[in-house]
Design goal:
By secondary structure, the chain is an alpha/beta fold. It is built from six helices and 14 strands. It has a domain of 156 residues: Rossmann fold (3-Layer(aba) Sandwich). Strand 8 and strand 9 form a beta hairpin. Helix 4 runs antiparallel to helix 5 and helix 5 packs antiparallel against helix 6.
Length: 237
């Protein structure tokens, strides 16, 4: 009997002063911990796991304290049936590694070779540069991520931005190719940018900020394919 397909979900969170904090920047500054925590680790993570379940894909969820380099290495070495590595969090400024808020590395040049034969979907700043290239050189099937900053948006617009961020991943789980999933993600961004600019305050009070953030994320998103080293759709709206 064939082994069940698996997805490795990595979403690091630390506890500072009794409050959970996560790792994404919000329009150039750190956002209040609870709101970011809910969006990144709860809402996105739950959506990913629910969609994976629909397609009979088992999720190995390395959440909070479990999101360490040791646990990532163990999972990737123990389960060759992991097809996709998903990271929701923070990369260093040079895009050379994924890390925790305490600067402990989770994925970097020392273990990126474990992406060989797997796809990578990283929702974080800068990983679409050096780390993505290293993943492809190590034999990854594809890499989807962001070459510059990845932004969230305050308050009501955050659900729209997070929906766009993982839309390509949901496409992958449903059976789309990496390129088709990437184009689906682009189309989702275009749709919400248009909706925000047309309906403005009818959707969210901070519609202008939300639209600006989506445009920035749209331009920063990148795909790398095994048969085409780098394809970057950074066209303007």
């Amino acid at each position: 009997m064939s082994k069940k397909r698996k997805l490795l979900l990595i979403r690091p969170v630390l506890n500072h002063g009794g409050r959970l904090r996560s790792f994404l920047n919000c329009v150039g500054r750190r956002k209040k911990s609870r709101s970011i925590f809910e969006v990144l680790t709860a809402s996105m993570g739950l959506t990913i796991k629910q969609e994976a379940l629909k397609h009979d894909i088992q999720v190995i969820d390395l959440f909070a304290e479990k999101a360490t380099k040791e646990q990532v290495n163990k999972a990737l070495e123990e389960y060759p049936e992991i097809e996709l590595i998903v990271f929701l969090g923070l990369a260093d400024r040079e895009g050379r590694g994924l890390r925790r808020l305490d600067n402990r590395s989770i994925i970097d040049e020392s273990n990126i070779h474990l992406s060989k034969g797997r796809g990578c979907y990283f929702v974080c700043c800068h990983a679409g540069g050096n780390l993505g290239i290293q993943a492809m050189r190590s034999g990854a099937k594809f890499f989807l991520g962001y070459k510059k900053d990845f932004h969230l948006v305050p308050n009501e617009g955050e659900s729209i931005v997070s929906e766009c961020a993982i839309s390509g991943l949901l496409g992958l789980l449903s059976g789309l190719s990496a390129m088709d999933a990437f184009m689906l993600q682009k189309e989702k961004h275009r749709y919400w940018i248009e909706q925000l600019e047309q309906r403005q305050d009818q959707l969210v009070p901070n519609w202008f900020i939300a639209a600006s953030v989506l445009k920035a994320n749209f331009s920063s998103s990148v795909i790398m394919l095994s048969d085409e080293p780098l394809t970057n759709n950074s066209g303007e709206e």
